[in-house]
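Methods, example record. To illustrate the input and output format used throughout this study, we show the complete record for Protein mab-21-like 3. The sequence lines were provided to the predictor; the line carrying structure tokens was produced by it.
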Amino acid sequence: MKPFTEEDVEFYIQNKVERRHHLVSKTVDEVQKIIQQLTAEISYRDTRFQAISNSGVHNENFRDQLALLAKWSALLRGKRPFHPSVQVLAPSHFLITVPLRGLTGYRERQVRHWRYYTVHGAKLLSPVRDPEELQQWLEVEQFSKSLQQWHETEVNIEGDLVPAKVLAIFRELMEKSITSCNLSSKVSVLESFSSVVRVAVETPDSQVEVELVPTVEIPTCWPERARWPRCFKRWPSQEKVQCIKSFGFNLLARSNYHWQLGFSRAERMLIEGLDEDGGCRMKCFRVMRQMKEDVWCTGNKPVLTTYHLQMVLFWTCEKYPRTKDWLCFREGFLRMVQKLHKCVSQHFLKHYFVRGTNLLKYANTSDLDLVAGKLAVFLENPVLCLD
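The corresponding predicted structure is encoded as:
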């Protein structure tokens, strides 16, 4: 290991970052094909669930949004292949959203405050806890059009769509589909202490853990909880902000009672064209991600994921919006790592769109402190691992 020069950075990118990109892209393609086959089978058994190929602008919720479809196509024209349902948290840990069908015409409204039921429908004497900042209740009446199946008691309690019930049905369908698709040698459902559905997928090179998340994709609507952008911020531009908001958000079934807000399309739009001004923001991010995976926070399920680093990227871009802030790689990179070190040391990383959410709230503090120590050592003597 030695202090990094411009030549070292290019060598590191070619021999580490690009190699990682090639391997992960190959793994994503292999996993995506398997999950596509399984979700297509699930959709055949229960039309409320769609195959993952129907994610994003391919979802039925977008079909009437011709202007939106044209805008998305124009933005991604000539860009690298993109799997809208796949989020790589680490090279062997993916999150894949599974689009739900039959819930269209979403509108926000004031929902009733208290719920007195368990996920099995039993009555409670005290109410269920309120959703956190990045969560919300979801009532079927919030959709102007909904399939009758979403009104059935197997997924609905007192008008609420209950994530735990949706996940229970999805898990059962997944287990049956693995067998019917003859994929038992490649895919297995993992045990879980919560209602989330996790599977292990065997690829030729490695095993990948995948969390599969039934998701309501909501175009054209931006949630009130996401008070973004903040006033007087120069990044991104107002034009970009309006474009981003026009693609809406998602609601993910990742807990028992509450649906989690997701912004995958917005995040994609922020990253696209990030360095059109000739800056090095993405180069800094990719090197930081590689160092995180190789040195600072290794392992198959690290306490820090690529998603955390993406939030650090956004916050740093917002704080340093000028082109001249991103002309020197070394300065930009160290600035980004310093932001990461501050967040990890304080056990506090705000979600970029919903500022009241601390993305490290439930992270293991001992693991975070270990990473913070490694980051501190690096910042004292910044070197790249070129071995």
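Annotations derived from this record:
The mean pLDDT is 92.
The CA atoms of residues 244 and 266 lie 5 Å apart.
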